[in-house]
Amino acid sequence: MSTDRVVLAYSGGLDTSVAIGWLADQTGAEIVAVALDLGQGGEDMEVVRERALACGAVESIVIDGKDEFAEEYCLPAVQANALYMDRYPLVSALSRPLIVKHLVKAAKEHGANVVSHGCTGKGNDQVRFEVGIGALAADLRVIAPVRDYAWTREKAIVYAEEHSLPIDVTKKSPYSIDQNVWGRAVETGFLEDIWNGPIEDLYSYTDDPATPREADEIVIGFDKGVPVSIDGKPVSVLEAIQQLNVRAGAQGIGRLDMVEDRLVGIKSREVYEAPGAIALITAHMELENVTVERDLARFKRSVDQRWGELAYDGLWFSPLKRSLDAFIAEAQEHVTGEVRMTLHGGKATVTGRRSDKSLYDFNLATYDEGDVFDQSLAKGFVELWGLPSKIAAKRDQASGS
């Protein structure tokens, strides 16, 4: 097999560093490494860029994608109240289509006809990468060394040592970790026994929620579903996530320990921490409760669930996802106002909400003086509302069923 150039999704770790030379050997191609800064922290991205060159890449590209990720991927997830299996805020799933977008762009710019990634054959990410690449550039081929050529960590270590690659092959975390500004995902190691409880050393974005501390009160402002202020001070979407990661994280908010349904058909134990994501989604859901009409809100809940499933399943660029995006965007028209929350003990608790677009009418809701709700209308409404059930019940009684 021979090709001119291969674009590699590069993380800076052992597997993708080794993949540079290995892919060059196997394909006879030049390797272009592409890394994205999505707010994951850790190593300086310039160090990552230089490492790819030292490992043999002809080009090493580092893209600052933090704002793009926040505004075009995390924000839609907030507006869709996206929680896979009603819990997981799509920490890894949201980043993959953005990475795919830049891999495809790099392939076009550098004349590559192959894209490579480091995903395994039993995870969700292989699907997210390859389905996304197929949707954006069907002519590109994909090589997944770990999956397609049974590439193991042991083989990677031997290769790195034999070729004197500038990477530490002795550091071995017992966990597989993926993180970005939206959150952090931890799996494998002792977590694969689902009876084992997570230990405090697993966590990086959150403090122990059981530690005694003062509560933190926060007010998040939204404009048409977009977070625009915290405690009255303007913020970008990225700044909102970052500030909430700090403040909600300090209160232990956003820790999840769950067995989830992977796309490939197996169940997997995952530990997540996503303080900013959980706080933002909690606030946004409450503001929708105040500003979105009842039937629209009911229908949107089913749309939100399907949107989260599509994002999780790697169908970010699908026609259905685009159509649901349009519906959700329309539903945000009146989601403007402020939500007050108390952050404490691992929970973000809503304690107040206000909006110029509110559908809550005090004079209709109150039971005290000033009540304008005409209760005399309720008797006929109740009779008509229950009439179909009443007629059906009479029929069933008559037939003895």
Automatic annotation (TrEMBL):
L-aspartate binds at T120, N124, D125. Keywords: Amino-acid biosynthesis, Arginine biosynthesis, ATP-binding, Cytoplasm, Ligase, Nucleotide-binding. Gene3D superfamilies: Argininosuccinate synthetase, chain A, domain 2, HUPs, Single helix bin. It catalyses: L-citrulline + L-aspartate + ATP = 2-(N(omega)-L-arginino)succinate + AMP + diphosphate + H(+). Residues 5-166 form the Arginosuccinate synthase-like N-terminal domain. InterPro entries: Arginosuc_syn_C, Arginosuc_syn_N, Arginosuc_synth, Arginosuc_synth_CS, Arginosuc_synth_type_1_subfam, AS_cat/multimer_dom_body, Rossmann-like_a/b/a_fold. It is an enzyme of class 6 (ligase). Homotetramer. HAMAP family: Arg_succ_synth_type1. This is Argininosuccinate synthase. It comes from Nocardioides jiangsuensis. The lineage of its organism: Bacteria, Bacillati, Actinomycetota, Actinomycetes, Propionibacteriales.
